[in-house]
Design goal:
With 418 residues, the protein is an alpha/beta fold. The protein has two domains: 121 residues, 3-Layer(aba) Sandwich (Rossmann fold); 281 residues, no CATH class. Helices cover 40% and strands 17% of the residues. It contains 17 helices and 14 strands. It has a six-stranded mixed beta sheet with strand order 9-10-11-12-14-13, with helices on both faces. Strands 2-3-4-1-5 form a five-stranded parallel beta sheet, with helices on one face. A hairpin with a 4-residue loop joins strand 10 and strand 11.
Length: 418
């Protein structure tokens, strides 16, 4: 029996774009549910669905991209996996320039369309992009969570009275569980096979086809290295030495992995907007369950060495992933980064809105916290003054506790309970 369909929290945002934008782009890694979301949107409209993974449809699009793009003028043309025929992007632009009616096209892409080999068109001014990832914890619970908006309000609303927090073991299980929809009810053995095949397909086939990168075989040890050091600052020279890859090629390989949404990079935050990202970026797998699979680590191993960098990196990556997912529907527009200075002051995650006000987050695997855990947050608060809205240590305990001026200890579950 198939598992019941889970409603994606970005659905209402996508419906809104269909009412005011000619092209709605749903982008994200393979197997995160883009086609399912496209079907749910197009089923409510007069639409024609086409999948470019089909050899016949792909050949037709390659032979006559202009005609292909104009084949369903009376409704919405839904094109799945558009990165398979980059020339179609230019044809969509031409079709929209002739008819700017909202909702003309819904397209999905398993790659950043700006990085696709052979793509000459960004669709700027004609398209809005909805980024989709694996299931968020709120989606699995049937709620629309918005932690960022809640944190910006926290100083005025006060400490939450109740948080239904899981145990530390539960948090560790969550951080090693893949969030791909297809794996939601899979057995451990099936999940392992699926993830092995997934990585092999995306790295061996998709990344090479989409980006045209040379030596895609070098992506395998690099991805393994990133998984082993999940959410740590990425030093290119050291990485090149560790995986025996020329240092000059590392940036292009990172771009390739980012373009197919396998990894995310968290830039360094600076108080000077002109010098943003002066520190090394943190690099992590977009899905921490996949990181745990590649690193051959499970919740038992994390619990045996709960203070290790591996456990900390996976848990921090899990929190970052939840925040990244929520950005697609949050009422608060914010950027994600991390902070570290030359004197050792650091904050795991920094959220910054368009007014340059900040929320700082530390992630701890411990079930208790103390004043020492707030050192980085206090430094950042004092450094930016009134721009600092709130800071929190997210931990595996069960209580929400105030820790001084604009600082709180919060259970990690607060991420999806608000």
């Amino acid at each position: 029996m198939n598992a019941p369909l889970i409603r994606r929290n970005v659905t209402d945002v996508a419906k809104e774009t269909l009412t005011d934008t000619p092209i709605t782009v749903i982008s994200g890694a393979r197997q995160v549910g883009k086609s399912t979301l496209m079907h749910s949107l197009s089923n409510e409209r007069d639409s024609l669905f086409i999948n470019l993974d089909s050899a016949v449809d792909r050949a037709a699009a390659e032979s006559d991209p202009d005609g292909f793009a104009r084949q369903y003028p009376q409704g919405t043309l839904a094109i799945d996996e558009i990165q398979r025929v980059p020339a179609l992007l230019t044809s969509l632009k031409a079709a929209v320039d002739d008819d700017k009616r909202p909702g003309r096209f819904i397209v999905t892409g398993s790659a950043d369309l700006l990085s696709v080999k052979g793509s000459q068109e960004s669709l700027a001014g004609r398209a809005q992009t909805i980024h989709l990832e694996g299931f968020s914890q709120g989606e699995l619970a049937g709620t629309v969570e918005d932690f960022a908006s809640w944190m910006w309000r926290l100083p005025s609303t006060g400490t939450p009275s109740t948080v239904h927090s899981p145990s530390r073991r539960d948090y560790l299980e969550l951080s090693v569980s893949p969030t791909f929809p297809e794996l939601r009810t899979a057995s451990t053995r099936s999940r392992t096979r699926w993830l092995d095949n997934y990585v092999d397909r995306v790295l061996s086939k998709d990344t090479a086809d989409i980006t045209g990168i040379a030596h895609p075989d070098r992506l395998f040890p690099l991805l393994d290295l990133i998984a082993a050091r999940n959410a740590s600052e990425f030093v290119m020279a050291r990485a090149a030495q560790d995986v025996d890859i020329p240092a000059r090629t590392i940036p292009s390989y990172l771009r390739a992995l980012s373009s197919v949404f396998l990894i995310r990079q968290l830039p360094g935050w600076s108080n000077d907007i002109a010098k943003r990202a002066v520190q090394a970026a943190k690099v992590m797998l977009a899905d921490t369950g996949l990181a745990a699979h590649l690193g051959d680590i499970d919740a038992d191993g994390m619990e045996r060495d709960v203070s290790s960098s591996i456990t900390g990196g996976l848990l921090e990556g899990f929190v970052t992933s939840e925040l990244s997912k929520q950005r697609s529907w949050s009422g608060k527009r914010f950027a994600l980064s991390h902070f570290r200075d030359n004197h050792g002051h650091e904050v795991d995650i920094v959220l910054e809105d368009r007014r340059r006000t900040l929320v700082g987050l530390e992630v701890k695997a411990a079930t208790t916290v103390g004043a020492n855990d707030f050192k980085g947050l206090k430094f950042l608060r004092d450094k930016v003054g009134d721009r600092f809205i709130a800071g929190a240590v997210l931990y595996t305990g069960t209580r929400a506790v105030p820790f001084g001026d604009r600082l709180w200890a919060l259970p990690i579950a607060t991420l999806w309970e608000h």
